[in-house]
Amino acid sequence: MGHDLVDRWNVEVTGDDRNSSDHNYITFRAKSDKTSSPNFKDISKTNWTVYEEKLELLMATNADKFSSIDSIDKLDEAADLLSKTVLEAFDSATELTYISSKIRPPAWDTPQVKEARKDMREKIREAIKRRDPHYDKVKVDSRKTYEKLRNQTWSSKFREFCSKLEAKSDTKRISSLIKNTKTTRLGTIRRSDGTLTESATETLEVMTQVHFGEHAEPPQVQNQPPVNPARAEAETEWDLNHIFSENRVRRALEEFSPLTAAGPDGIRPIMLQKGWAQVKTAFAEIAKASYTLGHTPSSW
After folding, report:
1. pTM of the model as a whole
2. What is the per-residue pLDDT for 246?
3. Spatial separation of the C-alpha atoms in residues 284 and 270, rounded to whole Å
């Protein structure tokens, strides 16, 4: 599919040394109805103070839209509104960055290599112009000098690239080990009577009883009084507020790397982390409603 959009295939045979491979470039033209924008929003240049101020203003304007989410339609609308609000605040705090269409030269093509290439060509042209009887030797020697410098520079730049890559990998591994200390803690689970455990010790006790006790199923409470519907509803509400509390959601959000690629909604974790004070209530309400209704917002 899409083969009809590509034409003018051509093996580019040139006299210069732009290509470091022993193969020639293959060029082609790709047709498209859409024109790509030469600008984009560079998140590294975002003014986060402006972002927070704009986000606070927008969230205050739409505060009523994030309460009483009791249907899937309202859930989708709230999630979509939150995404648009965050993106609008981000756009207002981030200037467009121009993307140059110029192809960047490879790292090994340093000014010294360019000068050597220019000198090589001048020597060859001069030898041709004056009909030098030793033209072949001039050509071979000048190319050999140039290629030696180019290969040395290529090797040096490649070693430099590998050392940077290894350094980043070490840092990433250390960061992962540190972060893993947070994710190994036991969370909250339900006891046999439906209540939630309050600590890691209680969670471990319940899990031990269930998986290593005399019975495969958790023990049932004997002579349990009839369930009061009003009390059950209140306990369920407490459970939801406990599971999806602002602090718990914030801690889960902090587990994400700030600049992780955005999802379909176009929002990166750093946008929610930087604006958490402004979106925490709405975000927790949407998460709670999503759990209660058993539906993931279509825009997320």
Report:
1. 0.49
2. 76
3. 17
Length of the chain equals 300
Whether the Cβ atoms of residue 68 and residue 288 lie closer than 8 Å to each other: no
Q: Strands 25-30 and 6-12, how do they pair?
A: antiparallel
Burial (0-12, 13-18, 19+ Cβ within 10 Å), 281: middle
What is the rounded CA–CA span in Å between residue 277 and residue 246?
10
Instruction: Please check whether residue 210 is in contact with residue 191, taking contact to mean a CB–CB distance below 8 angstroms.
Output: no
Give the start-to-end residue ranges of the domains of the chain: 39-100+186-220+229-293
Q: DSSP letters along the chain, please?
A: --GGGEEEEEEE--SS----SSS-EEEEEE--SSPPPSEEE-GGG--HHHHHHHHHHHHHHTGGGGS---SHHHHHHHHHHHHHHHHHHHHHHS-EEE---SPPPPTT--HHHHHHHHHHHHHHHHHHHTT-TTHHHHHHHHHHHHHHHHHHHHHHHHHHHHHHHHHHHHHHHHHHHHHHHHHTS----B-TTSPBP-SHHHHHHHHHHHHHSSSSSPPPPTTPPPPPHHHHHHHHHHHHHHHT-HHHHHHHHHTS-TTPPP-TT---HHHHHHTHHHHHHHHHHHHHHHHHHT---TT-
* Angle (CA) 102 107 113, round 5°: 100
Each residue of 140-156: pLDDT tens digit?
Answer: 998 999 999 999 999 99
User: How do residues 283-297 score in pLDDT, each as one tens digit?
Assistant: 888 888 887 788 888
Cα 71 to Cα 295: distance, rounded to the nearest angstrom: 10
CA distance 187 to 255: 15
pLDDT band at 236 (very low <50, low <70, confident <90, very high): low
